[in-house]
Amino acid sequence: MTIRVLIVDDQMMVREGxxxxxxxxxxxxxxxxxxxxxEAIAKVAALRPDVVLMDIRMxxxxxLEATREIVASDTDAKVLVLTTFDLDEYVxxxxxxxxxxFLLKDASARQLADGVRVxxxxxxxxxxxxxxxxxxxxxKLSTPPKPADPAGVGELTxxxxxxxxxxxxxxxxxxxxxxxxxxxxxxxxxxxxxxxxLGLRDRTQAAVFAYETRxxxxx
Length: 219
Prior knowledge:
Strand content: 5-15%
GO molecular function, one term: DNA binding
Oligomer: single chain
Number of domains: 2
CATH architecture of the largest domain: 3-Layer(aba) Sandwich
Organism: Streptomyces roseus
Keywords: DNA-binding, Phosphoprotein, Transcription, Transcription regulation
Protein name: LuxR family transcriptional regulator
Number of strands: 5
Shape: globular
Distance between the termini: 41 Å
Number of helices: 11
Order of helices and strands: EHEHEHEHEHHHHHHH
Domain Response regulatory: 4-120
Low-confidence stretches: none
């Protein structure tokens, strides 16, 4: 299946550059562009993209507000945040709001395409080592997390809790399977159950949840 992408950025050169790069990649099609968050919300509803490449700092409505509305809407679109700085507090807030990952604007064409595919599949955190570092940094700076909710975490089995901790540490399904000496398909099943039990959208939200409920603490 072709992955449908919407590019959201207030800079025309960025939009056009990403559009050319992605349209040249097999299995990816740019179906639209938007210049701010408000237009992005309208185009997500009209075009039904699979992935939204979302800039954070834009006029009219920023990417953080737009991400919240898109995630809360009746859409399966995944948001991939674009940023110039890898330690941007707005990016952490976007992850908390439901973005599936983030990518630096200076990423190569291959990294950009791989990022879109990863987010579209929902199988792994995007750039786990960088995402982990960002979550660690801003979980230190943000409001102290609340204790774990027994009604949520308490529903997880011991193995599911173990898998959740490893997700938060930035491990992929294959790496978790190798660590726990089980089949990767087993880990995929555990991840799906974790998301359903905790009412989370994807692995990125699961990682943020693990830090904010103190299942994992910043080093």
